[in-house]
Specification:
This is UDP-2-acetamido-3-amino-2,3-dideoxy-glucuronate N-acetyltransferase. Belongs to the transferase hexapeptide repeat family. It comes from Chryseobacterium takakiae. GO terms for molecular function: transferase activity. Keywords: Transferase. By secondary structure, this protein is mainly β. It folds into 2 domains: about 150 residues, Hexapeptide repeat proteins (UDP N-Acetylglucosamine Acyltransferase, domain 1), CATH 2.160.10; about 30 residues, no CATH class. About 0% of the residues lie in helices and about 30% in strands. The protein contains no helices and 24 strands. The strands form 5 sheets. A 9-stranded mixed sheet has the order 1-4-7-10-13-16-18-20-21, with no helix packed on it. A hairpin with a 2-residue loop joins β23 and β24. The structure holds coenzyme A. Coenzyme A binds next to loops.
């Protein structure tokens, strides 16, 4: 294991790989065989289930559970008390441990406080999920979705600003000045 920080109340199970500079705060539990990249921040009271893979600089706010079958790329932000799921039709008396649905969160995506991600729906890179949204469908790259069920209300830049596309399909990020193109309902940075 590399040079990372874990508060004395954190529990890290066997077989985990934790990148340099990662911090794991009070009462958090990293279960067996997880891989956490460099410079992640794992807040208070977080549970990361077995074999979960997180990229670099993933920020996990307090009270988040990341279940088996979830993967997050670099620079993902998981807001406080957001919820993943991994069984689509749970019944206490039926064992569905071999039926976990996978959910992938793309690079730079942000998930707002208290949002719920119904399993099996991937979240595109730099997508933005509003606070309290319930995601029931795939979310495209750079899409901003809100509400229950989550509906797309626009597009967001990599710096987290609304992209207002002109008639030719171009938009600038107000903070970075970076330019984006909307074509065939897909956004790319140019
Ligand atoms: C989604 C979000 C980015 C939108 O911000 P914005 O572009 O400034 O949007 P506005 O505040 O101008 O709101 C535009 C409309 O969307 C609605 N809206 C905004 N956020 C919403 C949300 N999370 N869910 C449902 N509707 C929302 C507003 O009520 C408003 O509706 P109206 O036009 O009918 O009045 C922001 O509201 C949000 O949810 N951020 C996440 C915050 C968070 O969880 N942070 C975690 C770290 S602390």
């Amino acid at each position: 294991m590399s040079d990372f920080f874990a508060h004395e109340t954190a529990v890290i199970d066997e077989g985990c790989e934790i990148g340099a500079g990662t911090k794991i705060w009070h009462f958090s539990h990293i279960m067996p065989n997880c891989v956490l990249g460099e410079k992640c921040n794992i807040g208070q009271n977080v549970v990361i289930s077995p074999k979960v893979i997180l990229g670099k600089n993933v920020k996990v706010q307090n009270n988040v559970s990341i279940y088996e079958g979830v993967t997050c790329d670099d620079d993902v932000f998981l807001g406080p008390s957001m919820v993943f799921t991994n069984v689509i039709n749970p019944r206490s008396a039926v064992n569905r441990k071999n039926e976990y649905l996978k959910t992938h969160v793309g690079q730079g995506a942000s998930i707002g406080a208290n949002a719920t991600i119904v399993c099996g729906h991937n979240i595109g890179k730099y997508a933005f999920i509003g606070a309290g949204a319930v995601v029931t469908k795939e979310v495209p790259d750079y899409a901003l979705v809100v509400g229950n069920p989550a509906r797309q209300m626009g597009w967001m830049s990599e710096f987290g600003h609304r992209l207002n596309f002109d008639a030719e399909g171009f938009a600038l990020c107000e903070e970075s000045g970076e330019k984006y193109k909307l074509e065939n309902n897909k956004v790319s940075k140019i």
